[in-house]
Design a protein that fits this description.
Elements: H1 3-22, H2 28-50, H3 57-88, H4 94-103, H5 111-118, H6 123-130, H7 132-146, H8 155-166, H9 169-183, H10 189-200, H11 202-214, H12 219-224, H13 226-247, H14 254-264, H15 271-278, H16 283-311
Helix pairs in contact: 1-11, 1-16, 2-9, 2-10, 2-11, 3-4, 4-7, 4-16, 5-6, 5-11, 7-8, 13-14, 13-16, 15-16
Length: 312
């Protein structure tokens, strides 16, 4: 799928979900339930299915590069957000939202559909590997970044959160998928077909649930906050540009290079709002960061992909 087609598909699928919620065809519980279905069933199915391929030395080398890049990007984005907060002199709750949104793009509902569309051969395999460090770090760093300063988390709570992250279905699917990959397991046709059919729902459902969640955001307040425009520019333009400049001279597989840059151009993670609500953080600005970056990403992500095709 080319960049123009991707932009139209993203827009239309998100619009379907947004319209369904605004017309009250579905309610908020439907959106949350659908997101949990994707998270607990569809994404694990994609991970396991994408790893049911022959062992390839090049894939192993690329996987190692992806994990290193993934961890490096989290650290780099934190440093950038820290510098931006100092320049903007942001000391309120928005500072934590900015750091979280920069460190963690939408690695679930957006990353899988986008990578599958742009890299149909190895996109799902590589993004499954790439997001392993993200899944392990987000639920530990997230509460620390977003919670109000007056709320203290005990060591027990931190360990419990980390353990909970390790036991989520998408994380557990990774070692299962790796076992399938290295042992050369071939699934019977009914199982393989079931995993394949579940995987095919990721793009339409992922984009639609994004639209459903966006429909619940306070749009007027979001568009009135200038800081959210700055955050959107940092998340969608500055981040991929910096990642491009850092990785450009490194001898990487073209797909790995493109995937890393495009991943860094994705909008803020939907989990931004969830964690803000759970830990009594700035839920309004969290929702605003997700909404605005997602809306703008319908244009910025395909443009990023198109520019990469011209350069790489």
């Amino acid at each position: 799928m080319n960049a123009t087609s991707l932009a139209l598909v993203m827009f239309l699928l998100i619009l379907v979900g947004y319209t369904a919620r605004k017309l009250k065809i579905v309610d908020g519980n439907f959106g949350r339930g659908l997101s949990m279905f994707l998270y607990d069933f569809v994404f694990p199915a994609i991970i396991v299915s994408s790893m049911s391929i022959p062992v390839d030395k090049n894939d192993l080398e690329n996987s190692l590069h992806l994990i290193i890049i993934s961890i490096g990007m989290i650290i780099l984005m934190f440093a950038i957000s820290f510098a931006a907060k100092s320049i903007m002199k942001t000391k309120d709750s928005f500072a934590g939202i900015m750091s979280f949104a920069m460190m963690f793009p939408n690695f679930t509902f957006m990353a899988y559909p986008v990578m599958e569309s742009l890299f149909p051969d190895k996109g799902l395999f590589y993004i499954s590997i790439f997001t392993v460090p993200v899944r392990l770090i987000i639920y530990v760093a997230g509460p620390l970044l977003i919670k109000p300063k007056d709320i203290k988390l005990s060591s027990y709570e931190m360990i419990k959160t980390a353990a909970g992250a390790l036991l989520t279905p998408p994380v557990l699917a990774v070692p299962v998928g790796l076992a399938v990959y290295f042992l050369g397991v071939t699934f019977p046709v009914p199982i393989a077909s079931t995993l394949e059919f579940l995987g095919r729902t990721a793009t339409p459902m992922g984009m639609a649930v994004t639209g459903i969640l966006l429909a619940e955001a306070p749009i007027r307040k979001i568009f009135a906050d200038k800081r959210l425009y700055v955050l959107s520019f940092m998340r969608l333009v500055m981040a991929p540009l910096i990642v491009f400049l850092v990785l450009f001279k490194i001898p990487l597989d073209p797909v790995v290079f493109k995937m890393a840059v495009i991943y860094s151009a994705l909008p803020a993670a939907a989990a931004t709002t969830v964690i803000a609500i759970q830990y009594k953080g700035d839920a309004q600005n969290a929702a605003g960061s997700v909404f605005l970056t997602t809306v703008f990403s319908v244009v910025s992500v395909p443009v990023c992909a198109m520019l990469l095709d011209l350069v790489v």
